[in-house]
Amino acid sequence: MSAILEVKGLEASYGQLQVLRGLDFEVAKGGVTALLGANGAGKTTTLRAICGMIRRKGEITFDGQRIERLGTEDVVRLGVAHIPEGRGTFGTLTTEENLHLGAMTRPNNSDIQADVERCYGFFPRLKERRNQQAGTLSGGEQQMLAIARALMLRPKLMLLDEPSFGLAPLIVRQIFDILADVKREAGVSMLIVEQNASLALELADHAYLIETGSIVISGEAKAIREDESVRASYLGY
Amino acid sequence: MDLFLQQIVSGFATGGIYACMALSVVMIYQAIHHLNFAQGEMATFSTFIAWQLLAWGLPYFAVIPLAIGLSFIGGFVVERVVFKPIENAPVLSHIVIFIALFAIFNSAMGFIWDFSIKPVPSAFGEGPLYEGSLLSKHQTGMIAVTMLVLVLLWAFFRFTRVGLAMRAAAANPQSARLVGIRVSFMTALGWGMASAIGAVAGILIAPVVFLEPNMMLSILLYGFAGAVLGGLTSPLGAVIGGFIVGIVENLAGTYIPVVGGELKLPIALFLIVVVLVVKPEGLLGRRVVQRV
Amino acid sequence: MATSETYAAGAAAAPKPFITAERVVYLLLFVGLVALPFFSKGFFVFQVTKLLIYAIAILGLNLLTGINGQFSLGHGAFYAVGAYTTAIMVEMMGVNYMLTLPVAGLICFVFGFLFGLPALRLDGIYLALATFALAIAMPQLLKLSPIEHLTGGVQGVIVFSETFDPDVPFGLPFDPGTWTYLFTLFVGVFLFWLARNIVASRTGRAMMAIRDNPIAARSMGVNVALYKTLAFGLSALFTGIAGALSAIAVKFVAPDSFTFALSIVLLVGLVVGGVGWLPGALIGATFIVFVPNFAEEISKGLSGAFFGFFLILVIYLAPQGAGGLLRAGVGRVKRLLASR
Q: What distances in angstroms separate CA B147 from CA B90, B140, B204, B206, C328, one per listed residue?
């Protein structure tokens, strides 16, 4: 399987503090790749670097095109949907407006409304809340909205930053089930950052472990899940 | 009673001016979360352009779209050239640049068109609307145009994709970039629109107060008062606020002996301070409810 | 604003030698300023008097903006209150002009403190708006009929209408212009000394802590409300005394001398001199007194535009003003010396 995203020697820093020290990894087309690691390992920074939300060095190739010099808007326009930490919904706009914003880069009058309905198919709760201000939704609903909005882009690659963050276990379960559906039905490639390693490894095909800005382990998700020593020393479950 | 009614009606008419200016203030606030202290001078500049075009013999119906269009481009360019480089600078830098623009526009107008007052004819004609009417033709036209601008704005933000993108860019720039919106372009667009609305306000006001470089200074203050009163996030609020300010100003001028006919600016100061202290979000301003 | 280099909150005071480069510069400056009226013409002395007065006003604004991080587009209003206080006391009550300064300062302190109360709830741009409104409304406030018998309405008040000049005390052998200059200079030196002490005191540290991080300051037990209003009051006090001195120097007050343009001029002086750097007030004041003449010579009628372009340039190229440039220059020289 060819790679949709290839990253070589990725470096990034916040001021004086270097957070990423030359990462190499890739995301397979149609597959789900997980980035695991402790707090402060540089997972979120990696996603932000791919999208050009911070300055970065190194080679980033997306779908055969080098993107490390592009701004956020242009990376998004190529088909990368980033679901940021804290979800980044537009709190003052309605649920449906949020969804339409997801399709902002697509030409007008294409089947946007049909896609909105498709999203409501994945997330029936959002349909009930379609005219409500997104800021008034519950945390789980906002996470669903964030994923749905990303789907509206018809992305080739989705970057998910801690989709389980701050949510009740039941809701987390629901969201991961839906992500599995999305993977199966929409064939979107995903790069997922998670603290909840067991959940992420269930969904993922491939996984990387980051420690203080470098990749320490890479392998099949299944193999990592079953490797007692890795689980004990890095994943802590 | 007659006097009272008359004061309300004429307050309503002046309120139309303030409402228009307040709309322009809200536009800028939505785009950049700042108040443009040079907005009055920019609107006056637009009005001078219209006056100049009229003086060159162009008919009114050609002058208005031309002046509005030029103002739109002007506002857009000012954002691109002057504000883009300091996007991430601290608030003080922005305020200083607003003040700098204020000085530049004011002095440029004095230099090009001098400080003598110039009468500007009304696009709606002279005299009362009908025999015995409390409102003149111009006042009626002013109120109608303000309403029209409000409706157009509402429709633009509610029904167009660009409008939606502008709202998103204002609400959450970071997320807006993540859905592919060119946020800084939207900001410039907001400047252009604010400047165009300012031009409308200036052209409506000039026949009432005479045109000169300082025409807008006090009107901008009332515009701010209207915008703050109505809520800086709400175009409808701004219009309502503008009308209220107009009426309050007129009544205070008539019934509070201290104020008198000429000295009404302290009312605007009073209104601004009271609203900011008592109800900073204004009458219709949005209070964001955020659950996490 | 990143001004922590000049006055870092809570910086430890290392023991300094008695003679420092800074002290030598100040001493030379002081001697030069004292000697100035004996070597130059009357009009120039008057202009430098105005310069010193503006410097005091800018010093006040700097206490608010540079040290406490609040904005004001309306300091011209406090300047006006100070000026009118002195004018009214001298003319209507026959008080010696020198005694009016503390009164003017006190009244402005109260006025500023009271205006600072609503300002507490206003952040950044809203505070700018409220003070903008104050500046624009001020000329009309001064014309209001209930106080017309004091303010003289549109006409204003002529100060020293009987003696024509402030009297020179103790029979000192100076002409009135020179005396006004020296008096202003001494008041200015005293206020500068006072401002430095305020900044170095507990109060000053609390104000800077609020500027740098209000939430952290609050959690460390700093009474944010008290110190923000206090900063407003102190700032108004300085600017008000400047206004009072202007009434003495110009010998005339009228509403239209205190328009929004005055507030703009003070802000320009602050930015050019350097926000957060107290001596910058002198540089800023020099700019606003002498550059307009210069600008007028380049192009008549466009001096406002010149001011505006210069401001934009300062924000782009030297956002820390003259103070920032000076620091950068001194730093470079020091490095050069050290590398030898």
A: 36, 11, 13, 18, 55
- With CA atoms as reference, report the closest residue to C308 among B110, B192, B187, B265: B110
C268 and C76 in contact (C-beta within 8 Å)? no
Contacts (Cβ under 8 Å, ≥6 apart) of B191:
B28, B31, B32, B75, B76, B78, B79, B83
Q: Touching check for B181 and chain A: CB below 8 Å?
A: yes
The answer to whether the Cβ–Cβ distance between C133 and B225 falls below 8 Å is yes
Dihedral of the CA atoms A210, A214, A217, A222 (nearest 10)?
A: 40
Judging contacts by C-beta atoms under 8 Å, the chain C residues touching residue B36 are none
pLDDT value, residue C5? 43
Q: Which residue of C has its CA nearest to B90?
A: C1
Instruction: State how far the Cα of C186 lies from the Cα of C190, in Å rounded to an integer.
Output: 6
In the stretch 169-198 of chain C, residues with CB closer than 8 A to chain B read none
Clarify whether residues A54 and A164 are in a common domain.
yes
Q: Copy the structure tokens of residue A43.
A: 């997972």
Alpha carbon distance A227, A234 (integer Å) = 11
C319/B93 CB distance under 8 A? yes
pLDDT in tens, B88-146: 888 888 888 998 999 899 999 999 998 888 888 888 888 787 777 778 888 888 889 98
Is C315 within 8 Å of B100 when comparing Cβ atoms?
yes
Best A67, A72, A77 member to test B by mutation, with max B CBs in 10 Å, is A72
Instruction: Report the CATH architecture of B2-278.
Output: Orthogonal Bundle (1.10)
How far does chain C reach from its first CA to its final CA, in angstroms?
34
Tens digit of each residue's pLDDT (9 = 90 or more) over C146-185? 777 777 777 778 777 777 677 777 777 778 788 888 889 9
Give the number of domains in chain A: 2
Element (H, E) at A66: strand A65-66
What is the SS3 assignment for B269?
A: helix
CA distance C279 to C149: 40
Same domain (yes/no): A47, A147? no
Domain boundaries, chain B: 2-278
B99 CB-near residues (< 8 Å, 6+ apart): B37, B38, C73, C264, C267, C268, C308, C311
Neighbours of C45 (CB within 10 A): 20
Nearest to A135 among B175, B176, B288 (CB): B288
Provide the pLDDT for residue A237. 60
| B98 token code pair | 């607003």
Q: How many helices (H) and strands (E) does chain B have?
A: 11, 0
* Chains B and C share 3 or more Cβ pairs within 8 Å: yes
Contacts of B19 (CB under 8 A, 6+ apart): B146, B150, B226, B238, B239, B240, B241, B242, B243, B246
Residue in chain B nearest C124 by alpha carbon? B91
What span, in angstroms and rounded, lies between the C-alpha atoms of C59 and B122? 48
Give all domains of chain C, ordered by start, each with its CATH number: 30-339 (1.10.3470)
> What is the predicted ipTM?
0.87
- Contact by Cβ (8 Å): B252, B53: no
Question: What residue numbers bound the domain in which A209 lies?
Answer: 1-79+159-237
Residue A105 dihedral angles phi and psi, to the nearest 5°: -85, -5
Tell me which of A121, A154, A187 is where a domain ends.
A154
Take residue B202 and report the two structure tokens written for it.
């200036």
d(CA C18, CA B287): 58
Across the interface, which of A77, A93, A100 has its CB nearest the CB of B180? Answer: A77
> Is C140 at the interface with chain B, CB within 8 A?
yes
User: For chains B and C, what is the number of CB pairs under 8 angstroms?
Assistant: 137
pLDDT band of residue C259 (cuts 50, 70, 90) is: confident
- Contacting residues of A for B161, CB less than 8 Å apart: 100, 104, 108
